[in-house]
Design a protein that fits this description.
It is built from 5 helices and no strands. By secondary structure, it is mainly alpha-helical.
Length: about 130
């Protein structure tokens, strides 16, 4: 048996896709009955809902065939993102172009941001402990 089709994640995707398609086809049928009763706008929705169902099947197929990233790939991606984030941050602020008041204000904001990050990391570690 293939884990692609029968893993816990895959079974969840199968159930979600079946519920999505059933819901979209029901909504399309409902809109078609309204269209037959004389609501001209419902013709658009009667076609649109089955298109959404097809989109759901496409998304299901794409998610089912997406290869999970390895720990090495995740670490490489995280390092790349951190490098880019540092480069963007460095490009945004030029302390040499700031007057004393602006520099003090920006330093204060940077400290507040660092405190927020530290508090968030502390909260996360407390949640992991419980």
């Amino acid at each position: 048996m293939s884990t692609r089709w029968f893993s816990l994640r895959s079974i969840g995707l199968h159930v979600a896709m079946l519920a999505w398609v059933a819901g979209c086809l029901f909504a399309g049928w409902w809109q078609a009955t309204r269209a037959f009763d004389g609501n001209a706008l419902s013709w658009v929705y009667a076609v649109e809902w089955p298109v959404f169902a097809v989109g759901g099947v496409y998304g299901w197929w794409a998610l089912l065939h997406t290869k999970a990233a390895t720990p090495e790939e995740r670490a490489e991606r995280a390092a790349f993102e951190e490098e880019r984030r540092a480069a963007v941050t460095a490009a945004k602020r030029r302390p040499e172009d700031e007057d004393a008041a602006l520099k003090a204000y920006n330093d204060h904001l940077a400290q507040l941001a660092a405190d927020d990050i530290a508090a968030l990391e502390e909260d996360v570690s407390e949640m992991k402990d419980h």
